Structures are given as C-alpha cells and as structure tokens.
Amino acid sequence: MTTMMNTNITTITNTSMIMNNTLIRAVMGSLLCGGFLHFSFAQEFIQDLGNSTVVAEQSSETILNGLREDEVLKDEKLDRKISTTIAETIKNEPDIAIRSMGPAAARPVIKGLSGSHVTLTEDGSFCGDMSATSPDHAVASEVLTAHKLRITRGPQILAQSFATAGGVIQVNHQDIPYDDSLFYGYIANYAETVQPGFATVISANTSVHGVSLKGEVSARNMGDMETSKGTLKNTDIENKSIAIGAAYSLERFKFGASFRSFNSDYGIPGGFIGGHPNGVDIELSKRDFTLQGLYIPAARPDTLNVIFRYNQYHHKEFETKKYVGAEFAVNQANLRIEKFIANSGPFFGIRLGTELDSRSVEMGGYVFTPPTNSYAASLFSIASLNGWDGLEITLSARLGGAFFRPHESVVADKDAIEDRNFALWAFAAEFSQIVAPGKFLTLDVFRITRAPTIEELYNQGPHLAAYTYERGYHKLDAESGYGAELEFRDYGEHFNWRASTHITWFLNHLAPRATGDTNWSQLLPIYQVSGDDALLMGASASIETSAEQGFYAQAGASYVCGFYQNENWSDMPQIPPFHFHAEMAYIWQHVRAGFNTEFALAQNRLDRYEQRTPGYITFGALLEFHWALTHTNYSIILRGDNLFNADVRNHLSRLKSVMPEKGRNISILAKVEI
User: What is the spatial distance between Cα 348 and Cα 625, in angstroms, rounded to a whole number?
Assistant: First the structure.
C-alpha cells in the first residue's frame, strides 16, 4: 500500500512539473466537487442505500456518478426551485420538459419521452400512482415534503426500470428515519400569486431509547390559475398528506417502517370545444406502507437491503358533483431485495438485486377497460471496474418478465380479453475516460425494452377528462430499441460545463397517436396506440461558474427531435421544442440576488393532426436570505417568474390551444430548520 501511494505521489509530482498551477487547482477542485478521489487514494465515501449510510475505506462510486452529485436538487438548491409540482420544480434541468393538463396534472418528460418511459420512485420504491397512464392524472406526491430530487441517468436506471432511454425521477422523503439525532425538525411555507393560496409542511425527527421516529403533515390549497389571457377556471388544487416512520438499530441490523397518506382534489378545466362542458373534478387518495431491513456486516462495507411496500390507490373523476365518469382502484405489492458489494475481483460498487411486483387494477364508471391483474419479476445487476489509463467501465443488465391477466367484463371488448406474457431484457454499458485533468468523456450504449401497459393493451372507450377516445390493442408486442449517449464534462477553475448528445432507435415505439377520426357519440377525437419503428435524437449543454461567493452565472439548453420510419420519415408527436434557460446572480455570505430568462422556440415539427405551438420568452428574478441563530437556520426565498406576463404555450399541454401557462407570478418560500 505504501509503495502504491509513493508511486501515486511521484506521478502527481512529475505531472505538476509539466502542468501549470491553474490546471492543478482545476483538477483538485473538480474532483472534490464531484465528491471523490477515486483512482489514486483510498478514502471514505458515503453510499446511499435508501435512507441509511454505509462508510467504506475505498470508493465504490463511479467517476460519473460522483460528478453527477452536483446535479441533485437538495437543500438550498431545491428550495429556490420549489413550485407547485415535481415537474415544475425540475423543469430547467438538462433534457427535462413538462407534460401537463393544468397545473396539478403535470409530469416530467425526459429526452422527449413520457409516460412509462419515465419512472417515479419515492424512497427507493415505486410511486404507486397512475400519472404515467394519462395526461389528466397527477403525480401523487407533494413536492414540498421532498428532501432531495434526483434524475437518475446512465446504467443506474436499470436498478429501477427497463426504460434506459428515458430515466428515473427519485423523490427522497426520508420517511424511515435512520438518523439517530436527538431532534431535527423544519417548517416550510410556500405561497404564490398566480394560484392564490398556500402550501405548508411541518416535519420532526427524534430519537427515544434507540428508536428513531418521524412525523410529518403537509397541506396545499391553491386557487384557479391566472394566465396572461385571464383566469383558467377549474384548476384549483387541494393536497393533504401525513407520514409517520420509525427505525431501530440492533448492532449490524437496521429495521424500519413507514406509512404515508396522500390525498388530492384538483380540477381539469373545460367549457371549450373538445373539453367537458363543466370541466372534471378529480379526487385521488394513495396509501403507502413500507417495511425495510438492512444488514451491514462488521468485517466489510457490504450491505443487504430488503424493502417491501404495499400501496393502495383510489381515483375518481367527477363530471358533475354527483356523477362519477371514471373510477380507478389499484392495489400493488412490491418486494425489492438488493445486495451491495464494495469490491469483488476487478469490480467495485456492485449492486445485485431482484424485484417482484403484483398489481390489480379495477375500473368503474364510463370506462371500458377490463379489471386486470398484472405480475412482474426481474433481476438486475450493476458493476464497475477500472480499465486502463484512466478508463472506468460500468456494466448493468436487467432481466425479467411481465404478465397480464384480464378478467371478463360486461363493459369490455370480449375479443380483447386475452392473457399476455412478455419476456424483457435490457442492458447498458458506460465508458468513462479521464481525457485530461478535470475533463471527462463518457459513452453510454444501451438496449431499451418496455412491456405495454394495461391501458395500451385493453383500453377501448372514452376518457372524458383527457378529452380523448382511447383505443388500445391487445396484440401489441413489447417495445424495444437500441441507443447511445456521448457526454463531455469539463471542471475548470472558473467554469464547469457539460455537453451531451443522444440517439435511440426504437424497433416498436408504443405511443397513442391521433387518428384524425372522431367518436361522434361523445364528440371525442380517437387516439390509437400503435407500435412503430422510430428514431429519437437530441442534445443538451450547460455551463456554470464554480465560485461559491460573488458573481454566479448558469445557462443550459436542450433539443430533441423524433421521426417515424415511413416513406416521409414523419415527425413523432408530443416532442418538446428547443429550450434555453439562463441565470445571473450575485452571492453574498447570507444573501443571493439575481435574474433569469427562459425561452423556447416554436415547435413546427408535428405529427399528423398535431397543432403548431409558438415560441416564447420570459424573464424572472430571485432574492433569497439565509441566516442562523441559536442553532436554528432560517431561509426566505422570493422569486418572480414571467414578470412581463408573456403568453407561454407549452407544446406538451392538452390545453395549449385554449389558454397559456402561468402568467406573472411572485412566490415566497419561508423555512425554519432546527
């Protein structure tokens, strides 16, 4: 070990004779910013496993995962971006867009992919809502209660999903409180002018006789959304949630349990051609019960993590105050077992796991999808190894199957009641090369796969809240394809920047497409799910200053385009246009002040029967204060968005032809942490 360290020190000394001091500072700054000194020295690192931490003597983080830590939204970075939903909070992150149908029903889009291509998790397990199935379904998670938001990229996606071309949004509530501190708590309040009302969360953690406890309550009550063209009626939101959790440590074992309840009442606007005359009111409730066990051996930093989650979800769509147009009831059980191995042979940071899932879906009201039970099982593995000359390789794979068992129903098409089984496999390989001090080049290659959803297979009928008549196809094959992403990162003394480009070839891309036909009994446009070969490609770039005090600037842009393979290579639907965001600020010790701008170009690349969307530009400002007093931290964040009340049309919104997005908005977040 001593010889190795002497060799490394000699190498660094010789290198410093060649390179100037500025470059050396850039190298060290970039590595420390990334949170690792992986290839030279043994060190302590923190491996996140749910809510626990495991301390090892050698890094098990890959190079790129270490660098991606600075992209995670947490602490002050999360607070200054908090908004109405998770999607709106992360909308200016690289490759992110928003699919929406009003402010409540907003869901993230990654690299032009939405629905089941984008997985949402809470504390390491599935979110358990139906937001992926339709644009009128909201994400059943309160963003104000999140401690951290992470967009998982690269081979790590396969630990949660087969959809390697999309991504995973991880929401960390820390409901199982493994932290054994005597007391920690916070109160946060959020309000904005564009949707008058408030959002509040109160959370506290404590430890009593070796048992760590957590309690949390939150509420959100916001009125109709104001736009540059007036008020968009029936867009109010009312959320309520409670969470309790407990954890206990017994030598090398840790046990925890949590319960989270989330209720939401929100509106989908109507009163226009294609919409419901009175709009639709939606009530949803979600109950999550989670058990977790961790084993941490004393001899080495390997761990065994077991999570069981049971979820109940209930969703009603009211076309009048008494008439239920659609109803969904979902019961889901999920067992996840994951083994972490710090080092084994040439590999480090090895994750081996299995996941079992059982789900039952029943639908009522004016819905013509049969009740269906579905089952899924999968194995996954992720491992990294050192190559040569600064090369690091991460390999991941996920193998499994999905099984659908629909039941006979008087409202469903009898010819479509057919059991379906899908064998699924996906892989990803990531090659990270240190091309120069502080400069990293990464290539990802992957295979994507995805089983059709219950709705894509069996749906045959109107969905009034979504303004569509939806047709699935029970003979659909699984989605598959191949892709690659190339990324370059440069961490310098004054600026950090990154640029990436990606391409995915889908052999059977599953998506609902407008047919141009109308179901005249309900006057609804017909959308048909079909599998088509398609090419999706795009690029993104971002740059920011590295100073922690003084002048700060940041800018980012992303673009994606998609084509179906046919005679004309026609455009794919629901592809976001070019998007740009920039911020300039000045940071004092406890104060941050700045302004920002955001613009999108017009979207003229359209699928059949899709409407063009004009571009827009907005301007905003930010002022925040942070200070500490008697072991208590205080924060006040004032943010102004769309200050000139621009007409903003989101191409991925079902309401874009009716009304624009939020108009001029002033928001405030006040937070006290003890």
Answer: 42
